[in-house]
């Protein structure tokens, strides 16, 4: 993404963009924060009134739906926050806190909690990425696949079969 490309897409001259944003890094920040905030709103709505496994399934379905409906904002939300960009860092932290709250019922040790968060994010991003790249062309429901994957993830959390391997 370049400011020239953005200006061309908007049908304005590049210098005109600087009346609204303070350069490319500011634009990336605004897109990331907007994406993270919209994703969080969607996830909160999906989980309203549900708990436990149902909340994890609702989270997964809403996450994938958001990525499908807003591919550009979704992609922007995946970037790591720029150093010193507190709004961006806070938006990312809010999403992590939401995931932590989803996993609280599983009483995982701190280190395994981190692995479980990374695992959930990896599952969902991998699913979205493969879907966007056309890898799910089989005549099997993508929704059913997501439910199957989430059931396997939840079963692993529930049975605590996921153990960290020693580093080294």
From TrEMBL:
This is AcrR family transcriptional regulator. Pfam families: TetR_C_33. It comes from the Bacteria. The keyword Transcription regulation applies. It comes from Paenibacillus shirakamiensis. The keyword Flavoprotein does not apply. InterPro entries: Homeodomain-like_sf, MT1864/Rv1816-like_C, Tet_transcr_reg_TetR-rel_C_sf. Residues 56-145 form the HTH-type transcriptional regulator MT1864/Rv1816-like C-terminal domain. Keywords: Transcription, Transcription regulation.
